[in-house]
Target: Carboxymuconolactone decarboxylase family protein
Amino acid sequence: MNNRVNILQLEPEGYKAIASLEQYVANSGIDKIHWELIKIRASQINGCAYCLDKHSRDARKAGETEQRIYVLSAWRETEFFSQEEQAILALTEEITNISHGGVSDATYQQAAVLFDEHYLAKIIMAATLINAWNRIGISTHLQPKRVEA
Model:
């Protein structure tokens, strides 16, 4: 892959602004596993290898199981995810695929029944944030470092 711009080096203030939102979400009280599921699922949809590698590792460190990470892209086909996690994943998918009709009333209402307004806002912010990071990673060809077994 050819070299592309390094946003952190060239536009550190813009990068810091997004990193500031990252800090907000990290300290907002959102459950760490919920946040990692959001980051992995959006990154799967967007095809961001760098973020998939990073957040799969982060999820493992936070206590997520390898099995659930392996089947996350097929979460509807398993019984591995709680009702709350299913609502989060559905909302994340619709936010990530926003051009395919937006967030449906059914998906939003399902999440609104399970979470208070503040937590729902945090889920939306987390999904929005990872989509921004994915777009930076993909457009600049960020690459994960290969780890030998």
User: Anything to note?
Assistant: Residues 53 and 147 are 10 Å apart (CA to CA). The longest helix spans residues 117-139. The mean pLDDT is 96.
